[in-house]
Each structure stands twice: as structure tokens, then as C-alpha cells.
Automatic annotation (TrEMBL), chain A:
Reactions mediated catalytically: 1-(5-phospho-beta-D-ribosyl)-ATP + diphosphate = 5-phospho-alpha-D-ribose 1-diphosphate + ATP
Keyword terms: Amino-acid biosynthesis, Glycosyltransferase, Histidine biosynthesis, Transferase
Domain ATP phosphoribosyltransferase catalytic as annotated: residue spans: 54-225
InterPro entries: ATP_PRibTrfase_cat (IPR013820), ATP_PRibTrfase_HisG (IPR001348)
Protein name: ATP phosphoribosyltransferase
Function: Catalyzes the condensation of ATP and 5-phosphoribose 1-diphosphate to form N'-(5'-phosphoribosyl)-ATP (PR-ATP). Has a crucial role in the pathway because the rate of histidine biosynthesis seems to be controlled primarily by regulation of HisG enzymatic activity.
Organism lineage string: Bacteria, Pseudomonadati, Pseudomonadota, Alphaproteobacteria, Rhodobacterales
GO biological process, one term: L-histidine biosynthetic process
One GO cellular component term: cytoplasm
Pfam families, per the entry: HisG
The enzyme's E.C. designation: 2.4.2.17
GO molecular function: ATP phosphoribosyltransferase activity
TrEMBL record, chain B:
Domain named Aminoacyl-transfer RNA synthetases class-II family profile: residues: 17-357
InterPro entries, alphabetized: aa-tRNA-synth_II, aa-tRNA-synth_II/BPL/LPL, HisRS-like_core, HisRS/HisZ
GO biological process: histidyl-tRNA aminoacylation
Quaternary state and interactors: Homodimer.
One MF term in the entry's GO annotations: histidine-tRNA ligase activity
Keywords: Glycosyltransferase, Transferase
Protein name: Histidine--tRNA ligase
GO cellular component terms listed in the entry, alphabetical order: cytoplasm
Binding site for L-histidine: 65-67, 92, 106, 110, 305, 310-311
Amino acid sequence: MTLKLGVPSKGRLMDKTFDWFAGHGVNIRRTGSEREYSGAVEGIAGVELVLLSAGEIPRELAAGRIHLGVTGSDLVQERIADWETRVVALEPMGFGYADLVIAVPRCWADVDTLDDLDAAAAAFRAAHGHRLRIATKYHRLVRDFLREAGVADYQLVDSQGATEGTVKNLTAEAIADITSTGETLRANHLKILSDGLIHRSQATLFKARAANWDGAAHDSFRALAARLGLDA
Amino acid sequence: MASKAEILAQAERLHAFFRNAGADPVQAAILQPADTLLDLYGEDIRARAYVTADAARGEQMLRPDFTVPVVQMHMQAGGDPARYTYCGEVFRRQERDPNRPNEYIQVGYELFGGENPAEADAEVFALFSEVLSPLGLRAATGDIGLLLAAIGGLSTTPKRKAALRRHVWRPRRFRALLDRFGGRAPVPEARKRLLAEIEAKGVAAILDAAGPEIGLRSRADVAARLETLVQDAAEPPISPAEVELLDDMLSIRETCPNALAHLRDIAVDLPAIAPALDLLEARLEALEGQGIDVDLLDFEASYGRTTMEYYDGFVFGFYAETRPDLPPVASGGRYDALTRILGQGRAVPAVGGVIRPELVLALTREGGQ
């Protein structure tokens, strides 16, 4: 069958993805009108370009509805349970860098490490009657990280945007969010814990294990991989 | 693979056994309010339980076990003593291994109240032992209360003891804390700098320089912990001898009488565990009274530390030694502290356990072949 390559459908992530493929000798482009979500891959037979929201690419990869997909490694690890058994990270692409970190108010002079966070959470719960709230949209990654570190007495509260503002707005005491330069965190009077790096994310080319890898799809993949300089 | 009808028939047999032992059958709703479970177990429960929601009641969980609803029911209207049995599905998320069931039947027996905790522990264990006896399982026992007593007996500050007690159920964190309080792990550089700064400038100056106060965790909260850090830094480390006693205790894996003798030796230097040992001894006598051969029964001092964190006394589990791939066929323990939390101040001694009938069925068939 046709090899389906899922790429982000808009914005900088799309542009950089197209640039990355072009830099590796594969021209991919959108076709049709400016608003139409369709695309083409030049020079390699049997490859179909599928334009998708970057956030949906993990789900499509996990289900095997696309063979290859470009998205942030944070999204794959957050949204696909046991992701290593479902997808293969073929190649980090060197853009879309973002660190998922735990940040707390800078005024917490006593908190520098996860160890401190745990102790502060215990005291906070005793004093305020509820668990210390951490706002995030990366529930799985944050929970796994804190469980591994043995942090207790916290709870996650969902925040799908403007997460840095939740502490000031009193809907959370700390946050776990992505940052590239730390500028927004500083502007909101937050600091990153010294051992609070949960995941270093970048745009990555993934391969779906569950896709239909018949002869034709495999041949197209080999041709594409050779052009991209990947181990097929 | 047994059919659900066969598993239910097996469950009904176990349920009848507990009813015949004098337990009242009780039911629990499948959907449980999520906030109670989250408050008890924290975020870890989300990794184990299915969470769902509606607009009227908010977040709810498919019951991950029966203990919490049965305790709540008892605390509202229970007699003393009270014996309950239940039978029904529980739901556990499986994100790693799709071969493990995410829905299975539990049959349980819980005993609330009574005069004598040792007798109550023995009664519950003996019932499980009896109903499982045809399967030739290995039983493991432990006692979280003993660990809590040992922590209470360390020559250190109440704050350090509280920190250790809080992490009894997280062995890695517990180890890290013990290493730090015992002076075996170095003080982190950032902490050293902070302490030096407090000494040079004082807490108020540090807080003034730290940034604007935002969020619910107040300046007073931060100041209080800074004071705690200063006090803690002035404390001598827990002595190597005491850390060694604790390590020695945690590594005990022997038959019950040998473990008791070993623990009595430890109690010479750590007398705080003596009452817990008296309870252990009384439990062993009560078990013998119930016809259990305690000379063959295993005691593991660290047993139960990685299971649900509500057990705070006697803990037990039954395992198929020929099938190390299977989870325990039955498990249980004492959870007095949970009744205090859910009883809003009122506490009742409570001990109980659950059996997984589909495992009983699988092992029965294996044995028959």
C-alpha cells in the first residue's frame, strides 16, 4: 500500500519539517489552494503526504493509520501508553526544541530540588488542608516522573494554556510545562527546579509499528530512508 | 482461559465460604467519587484507576477496590464487631502489559472492631488459609506497624521521624532520606549555600530577595521551612548503629519464630519496637490457636511496602510458587489508620483481605491436570 507520511499541517513546525526534508534531498510540499490540506512528496514513488495537526499525529501513529509521522517527542510520550512498543523514534530532527520542566515560584527560597518539593508539599498539605497543586497538560509524563522521584502529597490540575499564570491566579502552587528559553517562566516569577527536567523534547520522525507494512510500503520506506540517510 | 460464568461460579463459592464464616454480604457502587480516592492515594491512583466524569457529579472512578466504600459504609452504620464479605468487579488500568486484566473479580472479607487485634488478624488470615488450602500456596506475612514503631524509636527529631514514616511505602525515597539523616549522603551544594546565606543575612533578607510573593504557599510557609532547614542542619545525624539496626530489621526474611527471635535481639538496642513485637508474638499464638503452623510461615519485614499505602499493621499475601508470573492469589492486612481518615476522627480497628477467584480457578485446573 501507499506509504503514508504524516506531517504538521500548519505553522513553523510545518515549515521546518518541509525544510528538514528538503535539506535531506526530499521535496515535500502542499498542493492545491492555500487552505486545502493536501500535499505531495516528489521523487519517491508510493509516498503520500498526510497533513495533520501535530497533536493528532501521535494518535494516528499509535493506531497505525500512518506509517511515518513528524511530531514532538513530548507529545508521543505523553499521549501513547507504553510508546516504545507502538512507535520507533527514527531520527531527531533538530528543531522544535522544548524542555518539559517543573517550575515553582521564585519566592520559594527553600525549594531547589524535588526533595525540597516533596518536603514543601507535605508541609503545605498539613497547613492548607489540600495537596499541593501542580498545573500541567502533560499528566502522564509528570506523574511518572514524580512517582519515580518519590514525591508525594501533590495533585495535578489540568491546564491547557497560560499555565505559567496559574500560580498567580491561585489555581495551582507550581507548574509543569514546556519552555524553550525560560523567558515566560521568569516573567511570571517562576524558577525551574535544578533536577526538574522531565523531558527534553524536539521534533522527531517516528515510525508506526502497527501500520500495514506490506511489500509496497516497505519498498517506499527503504527508498525514502536511503534518501534521508536513515538505517532502514 | 475460564469463561466469566465459570469465574463467577468460583467467586460465589468463595463468597459463600465467607458468609458461612459469619460475614454479612455487602455491595458497593462501581462508580466512586474520585476526590475521596485522590485525597487518600494522590496522583498514583490515577495511574491505576479509570477516571471518568459527568457534569453533575464531576470526576468519578471505577472502583479500584472495595476497601474504601466498605470502610465508609461501616463508619456510617456499623456494629462492633462487624464482619463483611463482598464479591464483584474491580477495575485497574493496564498501560504497560495488555495481557494483564483491567477488570477482574475480587471476593473479600473484612473484620471491623473487636477487642483483640491479634485474634482478629489471626481470624482473617486463617480463613484465607483454609479456603485456599487445596492450592498449596506459599503465604508471606509482614508487619508495617513494626516498621512504624522502629522509626518512632530512632534517636532523632519528630520532623525526621515524620518524614521517614511518610515514605515507608516508597522504599527508594525512604532509603534516600535515611542516607541523608544518617549522614551517609552528602548535603547538596545548593542546600549548603542556602544555609550559609541564612546564617549571614537572616531569613527575612533572603525572602525579600527571592522575588514577589505569588501563590497560596505564603511567605510564612517558606519562612517556616527555612527555619526547619536550619534546625535540621544543626541536628546530629542518626547514629550508624541505629541505621544498621533498621537495615538489619528491613532485611529480615525468615520463618515467623526465627524472625521473632531475631527481632527480640534488635529490640535490645531499639526498645521502642517491643510493644509491636508483643503484638506479633500474640498474633503468632493466635494463629497457632487457629491451627496455622507458624513454624513454616514466612515473615518478611519489608513485605507490603510497595502495595497500597493504607496498610499499617499485619500484612499478608498468598502466592503460587509454581507460577511466579501471577500476581498474589490473595492479599490483605490491617488498616486502622484508614478508618480514622474516613471516619472523620473516629477510628475502628480493621483488618481484611481479598481473593481473585479467576486465579483460584486457573490454579485448581492446573493442579487437576
